[in-house]
Amino acid sequence: MAPVETESLEGNRIYQVTGRELTQIAEISAREAVKMCREERKKTEKREQSNADKVKRTKKLLSDYRRLKREIPEKEEFTESEKVEKRWAFLRDLMGSAHINSQESVVEKEEKRRAENMYYINRIERAIETYREECETSKKPEAMRCYREVYEYYIAEEEKTVAQIASEECVSEKTVYKDIGNACKIIAVYLLGV
After folding, report:
1. 84-104: b or e for each residue (b if 16 or more CB lie within 10 Å)?
2. Which phi and psi (to 5°) does residue 79 adopt?
3. How confident is the model at residue 163 (pLDDT cuts 50, 70, 90)?
4. I need a labelling partner for 14 at 20 to 30 A (CA). Which of 30, 45, 141, 172 fits?
5. 155-to-61, 146, 149, 161 alpha-carbon distances in Å
6. Measured between alpha carbons, how far is 107 from 185 in angstroms, rounded to an integer?
7. Average pLDDT score over the chain
């Protein structure tokens, strides 16, 4: 049975509903509220997971920095000896087999990989530099400590352990891990966006 309009008071309509109809309205409202709450919780969990994934990815990129840096010589191009070696390999392929394109594709893949590595190195260096500037302007005294810890752990040429960093900074290893984690959350924004 549909609600029946009984009267109108100052432009507002007043309906007469039975107890059963009121119960149905309450049930539907409760179901919709629970549904919206679950959807909001899923969105929040997804956002938190995305942020956690960004921090993990940032830590992975930072930990790969030294390897990428060692792999890439100061110049972005092949060295002369690499060029000569590639040319000879190309000529051997030309003379010895019909796999001409295979050597060309190897060279192209190496050049592409090298370009990607240079891109990541530049992104990491830019993010670390931006984080350093942020820490220098911060009013918190521990901000620069966090920067130094991240720099020593991931970026500096001489690799240091958490114990060494903790000793130098006169803090516990637990604090170093916490500082690095917090710093990586900020650096993730510079590296991977919001």
Report:
1. eebeeebeebeeeeeeeeebe
2. -70, 165
3. very high
4. 30
5. 11, 13, 10, 12
6. 37
7. 81
